[in-house]
Design a protein that fits this description.
It contains six helices and seven strands; from the N terminus they run βαβαβαβαβααββ. It has 171 residues and is α/β, with parallel strands linked by helices. Helix content is 36%, strand content 19%.
Length: 171
Amino acid sequence: MTSRKLILLAEDDANDVLLVRLAFEAVGLENALVVVRNGQETIDYLGGTGAYRDREKYPVPALLLLDLNMPGVDGFEVLAWRNTQKRLRDLPIIVLSSSNLPTDVHRAMDLGAAAYRVKPGDFHYLREVARQLRDQWFAQDDIAGARRKPMERVSYYARTTEKGLSNFCRR
């Protein structure tokens, strides 16, 4: 495994993938970003099966950014599967979804998501989400140390001001 902390992005929309890459670049997030296009690919990658058997080439990520609405196996199914994998239970999963339905938020959090972010409507807000990821998850040299820190469990986020992502309702 390389010394950089790997982020796995499970996203089926090519435009969203491009915007996430640009937002990460804009905030100087130097982590490797690996993209999988659906829930089954996410499970295969995390499980080290199929095309992702080689752990030197496909190391376990430090963080998973997970879209909920993907073809075939959806994000909820990925979360439920992860809960059956003892060695992956500590993997932080942040849902990045277009859904702001409270039922989706609560279901994702109940299935073990560390945080839930609604996909912002424009690049400025996506860049702010990338900055938050950088500051909360990758500011430390040791990701294991970051995992030992108490995690803020955010169950819902709403864009309420022009300046950014400021209104968090906590569980």
